[in-house]
Inverse folding.
């Protein structure tokens, strides 16, 4: 069996939306920070088929998407291979059947597990995941979610300067058909696969906006996907603020996030920002590695340097539980790995520089029902460790499971839920979510962003009180 555990280099917090490609802007008016819009990043994939990056995949894990017939395994061999992986790694081990014999496909096997985040992906889908980790998607530049209640696919974000933006697509549009094929009954992965395609090829979408159904034909192209967008709202140019406030909108946790974050913090420092609004709305998650590293940049280290040897490069240990816990990772065997702020940059293998940290500024975190996974790690870690943090918006999605990606012998992939994470104070996130300190709902159909305005008002008050 040539199944390769990509968990050695890729550990993921599964996404809840499908980012097909593109780039987007922040909320509210102010001074745009141009460098942030020029960087590429990874992508968001559906609940059934995630993509993310912890570090570049090990070259030995690469597979030929379409192996020669002589190398192809029988369906039964692949089912048995997948079953052995599930036996050794699947978090909900009590859900596993005693034998793979009754199942005629891997999809049938994974569907029987009762976990929507554990699933089979084709070699083509796995290759798309790998490409997305490098920010090389060919698509139209939208984020699409499957609405839990209506079971319809809704565009929740259209990235600026993308084919979708140029084609007139808008957030809130309902996706009915792709090249004449109904989206009813499709998975998010299937929708993403149909919208993506060859460079310069055309896709025709049938959409609904309000009571109007219309079509748009859009030419696919490669679009880079920044994950972080920054603005500075200064009082001279924005009447809503009396202080320089930084707005940081983050759409995913990718391989480029940390470098973009460093640029943002540097710009905020130069602009004498006195408080930060971190907008995590519609951020379906991303890399566990990035979520921990980013949390570390907002939290002061509590690790005694003499005990550093007890921690791995992420600041995680099975042995020590003390202050500044970022998250708790539970294995199926019952062990708990505790990740602490260590102020150590795992990318440069050195301590963070002062400009890479944001330890003291008042912080308001904006969330909604599509804030999930890595976003929930970050929000919980900051709120439960710092007094000058407030969470505003709606209860978050509640995705507290971690997946690992395995490559099967024929080049296809198996994405398996391998662990669960809890908040620093041991609060369950999976199926529960994070309840905001101040709950604010946006009015459907209104152009006024009540959540953003309320968050800005709370941040302004925190700055003025010196908290």
């Amino acid at each position: 069996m040539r199944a390769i555990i990509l968990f050695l280099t890729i550990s993921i917090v599964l996404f809840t939306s499908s980012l097909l490609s593109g780039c987007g802007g922040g909320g509210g008016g102010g001074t745009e920070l141009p460098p942030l819009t020029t960087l590429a990043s990874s992508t968001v994939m559906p609940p059934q088929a995630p993509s993310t990056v912890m570090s570049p995949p090990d070259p030995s894990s690469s597979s030929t998407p379409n192996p020669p017939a002589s190398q192809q395994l029988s369906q039964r061999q692949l089912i048995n291979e997948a079953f052995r992986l599930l036996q050794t790694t699947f978090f909900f081990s009590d859900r596993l059947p005693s034998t793979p014999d009754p199942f005629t496909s891997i999809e049938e096997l994974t569907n029987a597990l009762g976990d929507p985040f554990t699933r089979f992906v084709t070699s083509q889908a796995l290759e798309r995941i790998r490409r997305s980790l490098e920010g090389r998607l060919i698509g139209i530049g939208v984020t699409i979610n499957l609405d839990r209640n209506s079971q319809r696919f809704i565009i929740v974000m259209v990235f600026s300067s993308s084919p979708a933006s140029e084609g007139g697509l808008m957030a809130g549009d309902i996706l009915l058909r792709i090249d004449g094929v109904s989206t009813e009954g499709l998975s998010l992965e299937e929708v993403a696969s149909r919208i993506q395609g060859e460079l310069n090829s055309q896709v025709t979408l049938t959409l609904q906006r309000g009571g109007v159904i219309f079509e748009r034909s859009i030419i696919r192209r490669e679009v880079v996907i920044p994950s972080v967008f920054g603005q500075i709202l200064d009082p001279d140019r924005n009447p809503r603020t009396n202080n320089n406030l930084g707005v940081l909108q983050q759409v995913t946790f990718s391989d480029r996030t940390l470098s973009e974050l460093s640029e943002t913090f540097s710009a905020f420092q130069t602009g004498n920002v006195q408080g930060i609004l971190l907008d995590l709305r519609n951020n379906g998650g991303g890399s566990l590695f990035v979520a921990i590293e980013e949390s570390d940049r907002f939290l002061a280290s509590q690790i005694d340097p003499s005990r550093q040897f007890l921690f791995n490069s992420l600041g995680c240990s099975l042995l020590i539980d003390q202050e500044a816990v970022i998250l708790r990772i539970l294995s199926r065997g019952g062990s708990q790995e505790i990740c602490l702020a260590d102020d150590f940059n795992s990318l440069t293998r050195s301590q963070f520089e002062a400009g890479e940290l944001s330890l003291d500024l008042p912080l308001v975190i904006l969330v909604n029902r599509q804030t999930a996974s890595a976003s929930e790690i970050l929000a919980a870690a900051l709120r439960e460790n710092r007094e000058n943090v407030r969470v505003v918006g709606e209860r978050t999605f509640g995705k507290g499971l971690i997946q690992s990606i395995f490559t099967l012998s024929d080049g296809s992939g198996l994405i398996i839920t391998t662990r669960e994470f809890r908040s620093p104070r041991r609060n369950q996130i999976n199926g529960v979510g994070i309840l905001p300190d101040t709950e604010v709902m946006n009015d459907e159909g209104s152009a006024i962003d009540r959540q953003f305005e309320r968050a800005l008002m709370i941040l302004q008050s925190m700055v003025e009180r010196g908290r």
Summary: Residues 1-12, 14-71 have pLDDT under 50 and may be disordered. Residues 450-465 form the longest helix (16 residues). The chain has two domains: 7-48+225-465, 143-222.
